[in-house]
Amino acid sequence: MRFFRFSVLLLFIYPPLSAGYDFKLALLHGNKDVFSYELSVLRLALARAEGEHTLDVIPVLHTNQARVLEILRSGLGPFNIFFSGFSKYREDQLLQVDFPLSRGLLGYRIFIIHRDNQNIMAAVTSLEEMKHNITIGSGVGWPDTEILKYNGFTVYESSYSNLWRMLDAKRFIAFNRGVNEAFVELEQQNKIYNDFVVDRTLMVIYPFDYFFYLSPQTPELRDVVMEGLENAFKSGAFVENFNSHPQIKLMLQQLQPQQRIIFHLENPLLSERIKNIPKEYWYQLD
After folding, report:
1. Residue 22, Cβ neighbours under 10 Å: how many?
2. Alpha-carbon distance 247 to 135, whole Å?
3. Pick from 244, 212, 229: which is nearest to 281 by CA?
């Protein structure tokens, strides 16, 4: 009887590896359509990890990324996981899952523009011309904003919703978007604005992606997600989901890299951990 009580006590102190956890994902802007691929990756990871895990999506409508990450770090908010573009600060302050969610496609940046500015974009033939002639809109607190500034671009910063209004008012020329975001967002914004198009002439590429972040107080949750992603990649399920997801398929069809001038930029934010991620996790554009 004494041994039984001791065993039960151990179960409370050290839960079994197959324990199920409740994941509550903070979703910026609450936009499940834009982030349907990223949601599919988390669902796949939880399905491929040991244990029975649940997932609830918590819409975050009026809070910027910096505040979301601070709430996550405290462990006191209504969510316990978030995905965001990599930064060294986030890696240091939170628990980072070292797996690029879109295989680096978030670092393949194209631009949504006002249709009146297409000729300005098409006239660019060099990186120096682009820096000099193309002003870019990017979000407050986004790592992309820091990367673009580091590489010499003039960047106008604001909230996500206000950037669309600024683009409509021609406050800047090009709204910086990932190729896995641009076409979905354009379809949504065209219900409000009538003059936006995806530029077909330029693309910049830098090593970058979304990563999952969790509170330092929940290492067991981080381990579950990493285990699930590694298992999914080893089994081929991750790449299968990547290749078959409608958002990724449409993006690759619409990208048309052979028709674009492509500029490679330096990412000063990369850590040694990111540099050491297995190269097969990253997508290579043919």
Report:
1. 10
2. 28
3. 229
Residue environment code for 190-228, b if the CB has 16+ CB neighbours within 10 A, otherwise e: eeeeeebbbbbbbbbbbbbbbbbbbbeebeebbbbbbbb
141 φ/ψ sector (left φ>0, alpha ψ -120 to 50, else beta): left
Locate tokens 């000063």: which residue?
268
Contact 58, 25 (CB under 8 A): yes
Sort strands 261-264 and 202-205 into parallel, antiparallel or unpaired: parallel
- 286 band by pLDDT with thresholds 50, 70 and 90: low
pLDDT in tens, 27-64: 988 778 889 999 999 999 999 999 999 999 999 988 88
Euclidean distance between CA atoms 139 and 276, whole angstroms:
28
Residue 116's φ and ψ, nearest 5 degrees, are -65, -20
DSSP states along 217-266:
T-HHHHHHHHHHHHHHHHHTHHHHHHHH-HHHHHHHHHH-GGGSEEEE--
Segment among 32-41, 196-205, 222-231 with least mean pLDDT: 32-41
**CA distances, 129 to each of 61, 133, 152, 170 (Å):** 37, 6, 11, 19
Closest CA to 81 of 239, 210, 262, 242: 210
Query: Residue 110 in contact with residue 134, Cβ under 8 Å?
Result: no
Is-contact 118 197, C-beta < 8 A? yes
Distance CA 47, CA 31 (A): 22
C-alpha to C-alpha distance for 131 and 9, rounded to whole angstroms: 63
